[in-house]
Amino acid sequence: MIWAGTLSYAAYSIGAIICAIAAVWVGSRGDPNRSDRAPAIAALALTANWCFAAASFEPSNFMVELTEIARNLGWLFVLFRHFANDGRDESLRIVRPAMVALGFVEILHFALLLLAKRYSFTPEIASLVFETAVLFRIMVAIGALVLVHNLYIGASVASRSLLRWNAAALAGLWAFDLNYYTVSYIIGAVPGQIAAVRGLAAGIVAVPFAFGFARAAAGLEFRPSRAVTFRFLSLLVIGAYLVMMVAVARWLDLLTGDLARLAQVGLVIAAGALALIWLPSQRMRGWLRVTAIKHLFKHRYDYRAEWIRFTHTIGRTGFDETSLQERAVKALADITDSPSGLLLVPDETGALQIAAKWRWHGDEIPAPAAPAALSAILEREELILDLDEVRDGKDHYGERDAVPQWLRDDRRVWAAVPLLHFDRLVGLAVLSRPPAMRKLDWEDFDLLTVVGRQLASYLAEESGQAALLEAGRFDEFNRRMAFVMHDIKNLSSQMSLLLRNAEKHADKPEFRKDMLVTLRNSADKLNALLARLARYGPKDTAKAEPFDMAVVARTLQKRFAHLHTVSLLRVESALVTGDSEALEQALVHLVQNAIDASDNDSAVALEVYSDGVCGKINVIDNGRGMSPQFLRNGLFKPFVSSKDGGFGIGAFEAREMVRAMGGRLDVESREGIGSRFTVALPLLAADQLIRRSPDPANYETV
């Protein structure tokens, strides 16, 4: 063992000399403008002092341990000052919490030294203190290596050439310590061979470190990696948790008997339950993320990452993907970490209706979801609604009174982002509250405003494409009508030919008989064709006359009696004005759709009643129901049919017929439950009163 002692003495002596020379060289020839120059000289001097103490005493001596603590604190401070070479305190603020944590762990070694010196009565206590101290040193080495990595990766390209020697030296120092203490923990004692060359390793590290001060480090800027930072914090939390559990378990070894076993079993159960509840918690992860962003970064958002994720979410395509409306909600929700959201879109009156849901569960959304007054305020002011402020009674532009009650009552609702395209409101995204509680700030408002405008352009583009598609369908309809007109022309030609032949053969009985049959067939074909075509032309408002909606409902029930069960649940007299035949035709479409959507043994119900202003007919079924997306984008789109050769304009035609009489067609539906179509026409008395009113706008509001 004499040669091991001699080797250790020589290695530490050489290390002390090299570190002292490096400190003098940095002080005399190092760049005087660097803010980390003085801390570097102090760290090299403390390292030389530690090498001198280790060469003079045994490695476990109190003085050696104390000088090693001072050496490590010095190097941590040097690493901390490296982040300040850009001359701004902001860089220091970013890494200060991590440095304080590592420094605190290192200072705990002093308490362990005192504990070992005073209370190490038994080998068990001494072993426990040793293992705890080694774990602390491993944590400090890992944390310092992560910070060195972020220092170099976060520096600009030009600054990396100035940092390469310093970063390499610091990485070598902490990497050697990490391996040294890892081996110590595994074997449960200080590895003599590795300990003997620690001094020489410190001297080798000091050479490139001092060489790195030969060049200026102006322009250094720290830009930490968010992903690496979050992973580092997560690992640090998990590591601290494991270290705490190991330390508690080791301390419990001091107990004896049944009490020790009971305590250890209870510790295992408690630790496992805590890990299962806390580690997967979305709320805890959200809190950790918000805390890290608040204290470690200048800005809340990594705009490059957010834009890449936004583009990926919106640009997804495929048969199994969600609609653009749902992806738009998800794109906004991902930015704020909201777990769910809604998309409301304005209808023809300006009121907001539900268009899409993304992971939204619970209460049904009323129809309309928000009044036109709120749409006007959001469109004019481009205001992002902070629902917590609304609930607290704050009002900026009069939006407090326009916000519907269901948005106030639902505590999940956190923010509402207007989507504006050329200063026109195309939608309103409602976001739920993120797991980690926080308040909206200026950065949220700025980013959500920009993203909202981008989403509005996508939605407007999709709407334009839908309009072009609809125009193409109208063109297809016109081509179909060309064939119909060709048939009419053929019938006209046949009758013209018949008339010419009649001039020659009118006196023949056989000809007269054939002529009557031909005329009857031609007339039937023309009447059927004209009746069909008349439904697509403009309505004749001159035929408006009073009629009872109850009579129309009873006629409709008799018409479908031999096809399907149609029951009258409620029949009240409702005298309205309009075209009874047009209303009956519109209801035929609705009842037929209800029958198609229902089972054979499921009745379709009709209700006729008056609310004092309008007469109403409800067509109710318990069929498959329709999704909000289909209600918005497919139900009233013409020329889309699931039947071969069908025109696909039933629901569209029914709505247009009702509108032509000054009425309104509304629909409510839930998938798997059924649908309710409501036809509302102004009562005769109300219609006469409105027509006498000097303000014609009143008629439109009915």
Automatic annotation (TrEMBL):
<dbReference type="InterPro" id="IPR005467">
    <property type="entry name" value="His_kinase_dom"/>
</dbReference>
<dbReference type="Pfam" id="PF01590">
    <property type="entry name" value="GAF"/>
</dbReference>
<dbReference type="GO" id="GO:0000155">
    <property type="term" value="F:phosphorelay sensor kinase activity"/>
</dbReference>
<keyword id="KW-0812">Transmembrane</keyword>
<protein>
    <recommendedName>
        <fullName>histidine kinase</fullName>
        <ecNumber>2.7.13.3</ecNumber>
    </recommendedName>
</protein>
<feature type="transmembrane region" description="Helical">
    <location>
        <begin position="97"/>
        <end position="116"/>
    </location>
</feature>
<feature type="transmembrane region" description="Helical">
    <location>
        <begin position="38"/>
        <end position="57"/>
    </location>
</feature>
<keyword id="KW-0597">Phosphoprotein</keyword>
<keyword id="KW-0808">Transferase</keyword>
<feature type="transmembrane region" description="Helical">
    <location>
        <begin position="261"/>
        <end position="279"/>
    </location>
</feature>
<dbReference type="InterPro" id="IPR036890">
    <property type="entry name" value="HATPase_C_sf"/>
</dbReference>
<feature type="transmembrane region" description="Helical">
    <location>
        <begin position="165"/>
        <end position="187"/>
    </location>
</feature>
<dbReference type="InterPro" id="IPR003018">
    <property type="entry name" value="GAF"/>
</dbReference>
<dbReference type="Pfam" id="PF02518">
    <property type="entry name" value="HATPase_c"/>
</dbReference>
<dbReference type="InterPro" id="IPR004358">
    <property type="entry name" value="Sig_transdc_His_kin-like_C"/>
</dbReference>
<feature type="transmembrane region" description="Helical">
    <location>
        <begin position="128"/>
        <end position="153"/>
    </location>
</feature>
<dbReference type="InterPro" id="IPR003594">
    <property type="entry name" value="HATPase_dom"/>
</dbReference>
<keyword id="KW-0472">Membrane</keyword>
<keyword id="KW-0418">Kinase</keyword>
<feature type="transmembrane region" description="Helical">
    <location>
        <begin position="230"/>
        <end position="249"/>
    </location>
</feature>
<feature type="domain" description="Histidine kinase">
    <location>
        <begin position="483"/>
        <end position="685"/>
    </location>
</feature>
<feature type="transmembrane region" description="Helical">
    <location>
        <begin position="6"/>
        <end position="26"/>
    </location>
</feature>
<dbReference type="InterPro" id="IPR029016">
    <property type="entry name" value="GAF-like_dom_sf"/>
</dbReference>
<keyword id="KW-1133">Transmembrane helix</keyword>
<dbReference type="InterPro" id="IPR014265">
    <property type="entry name" value="XrtA/PrsK"/>
</dbReference>
<feature type="transmembrane region" description="Helical">
    <location>
        <begin position="199"/>
        <end position="218"/>
    </location>
</feature>
